Amino acid sequence: MTAHASHADKALHSRRGIGLTANVLQYMDLRFSRIAVDRPALILLKEGQKTFQAGSQRWVLRSGDAIAIAAGQTFDVTNQLSDAGLFEARWIVWDAALLDRHQQATLPKRHVAKAQLLKRIGSEFTGAIDRAALALQHPASIPDDVAAHRMTEALVWLSALGVDFGIHRDASTAFRLRRLFNGAVAQDWTVPAVAQQLAMSEATLRRKLATEGASFSALLADVRMSAAMTLLQSTHRSVAQIAQSVGYESASRFAVRFRDRFGFAPTAVRGHRRD
């Protein structure tokens, strides 16, 4: 038995039209700069400490805390180990259609502008988050309607605490591109193909991105690196497999790009763990 055998394993699961869940494990302290959250998310911290920083705003989670994050936000994030030498966090992310249905059916609450910290949320809400994650993990035994109900239950809990995400209507070109790239992160995306999908000329696409201080290649690389980070934290896939999953045929080229983006090697995310 390992020192961490009593904890949940890494996990990453999604169900179309419902949402996704990730169980993130780390074995060393790490800081991630400019992490984009493209879809509304709820994070439950199970072990360690997690800090989000956006300009002068700062949110610090400790074991048992949760945080609701609105779509389209960018943070510097620090994950720190507990005294037991472990960091563990569970994410749930809702499909946009399911989230919109819930928001339209409920009375407006206090919308999450960037992030809302929820201290010591208690066993009932924690159980609702865990049930939602479990439903996403087992499509063969849990029907879609039940999985959607469990994901909605987590939203009802947030609503009961006076928090909701609102309906995200970010019309920026950069956000539209990130959403497109996230749908098929390994695809060989080109400016002409994307411009056609967005019903605009290549020149207009480039001009709009330049106005927003963004570029096509930088957005694509950032989405790929963010996806790679999630896979490193929440799966046991090899670095070579993850490189291919995010569109890189060369694992070494991927590792260089990853280090350039985050300041450390992909293997550092796993802390060179030895069982």
What are the SSEs and their pairings?
Elements: E1 11-15, E2 19-26, E3 30-37, E4 41-47, E5 49-54, E6 57-62, E7 66-69, E8 73-80, E9 87-94, H1 96-105, E10 110-111, E11 115-118, H2 123-137, H3 144-160, E12 163-164, H4 173-183, H5 191-197, H6 202-211, H7 216-234, H8 239-245, H9 251-262
Parallel strand pairs: 10-12
Antiparallel strand pairs: 1-2, 2-9, 3-8, 4-7, 4-9, 5-6, 5-8, 7-11
Helix pairs in contact: 2-3, 4-7, 5-6, 8-9
Folded structure, characterized:
This protein is α+β, with helices and mostly antiparallel strands. The chain has two domains: about 10-165, Sandwich (Jelly Rolls), CATH 2.60.120.280; about 175-270, Orthogonal Bundle (Arc Repressor Mutant, subunit A). The chain is built from nine helices and twelve strands. It has helices at about 95-105, 125-135, 145-160, 175-185, 190-195, 200-210, 215-235, 240-245, 250-260; strands at about 10-15, 20-25, 30-35, 40-45, 50-55, 55-60, 65-70, 75-80, 85-95, 110, 115-120, 165. Strands 1-2-9-4-7-11 form a six-stranded antiparallel sheet. Strands 3-8-5-6 form a four-stranded antiparallel sheet, with no helix packed on it. A two-stranded parallel ribbon has the order 10-12. A hairpin with a 3-residue loop joins strand 1 and strand 2. It is globular. The protein starts with 10 loop residues before the first strand and ends in a 13-residue tail after the last helix. Mean pLDDT is about 90; it is low at about 1-5.
